[in-house]
């Protein structure tokens, strides 16, 4: 079996997920390839798309939202993502009937989940966009408890009933699936070439490979017995490599050994690459991992230069102005600082804010 070193794994992951030279032509294309863009913080979901889509603008994103070419639903690991609408069926196929905390939670509040979902659907059918306040009114005194961390909206999403209208800074409206054109959402089980799980396997090892079986388990949030037999049948057709850690890494495409990172990458918080692997030290070393994965499940924005983890970053917006701060793990040359600043200026342009400069701090 051919060997692959840690650097090759990292660079191929950057390449396969659309972060290097071969970017995606549109935001829906990027979302489809990565099987969703994690977006509990909408602005960082949009930054994840900006980093992967050729010349993406806020205006183009808004058109995708208005035309339902991107929708926001709960998916893998029961977290909210932006997906192409045709992928909603695959999420439903895999997760709709999984045991989760929602039924017990609603029962504990004296509500029947199925009754609540029926009432929600009737409300959603009454207009194209239903504000969150209308659901608060529907749920009455238990509204807060029923809506915490997505609450009953999660099951409505997994059932294929409702989706969140993508909007910054957070969701205000929900819409019924009937408002999506049938040609965009697919046939929902009729004449599907692949099951949801088969589709997820193919997309994962295409966009996130090389990766291990445990990485796939982490990404899906599924238990091994729920996917192992199907995965085994598919992986025999993929490329496999022996990693430095003794683990077997799989990829749908053959690894490239001459990949280079031409310019710095400013990956946003919760970038797809940092929610998709069980093994966290694939880019940063063991001492640096805690700089990315913070308490309470927070994942920092990451700076990558020359295929190496160089630190984290944040921005501060005041009115129509933005300033960036980079927390470096190693000294950076003036040349690289200028290259990082150039990318920060590009991001400020995407954010439609006036660039006010970049600060560099050694941590």
From TrEMBL:
A Pfam family hit? AlkZ-like
**The organism sits in which domain of life?**
Bacteria
Listed name of the protein: Winged helix DNA-binding domain-containing protein
Give the organism, scientific name.
Answer: Listeria welshimeri serovar 6b (strain ATCC 35897 / DSM 20650 / CCUG 15529 / CIP 8149 / NCTC 11857 / SLCC 5334 / V8)
Query: Could you read off the lineage of the organism from its UniProt record?
Result: Bacteria, Bacillati, Bacillota, Bacilli, Bacillales
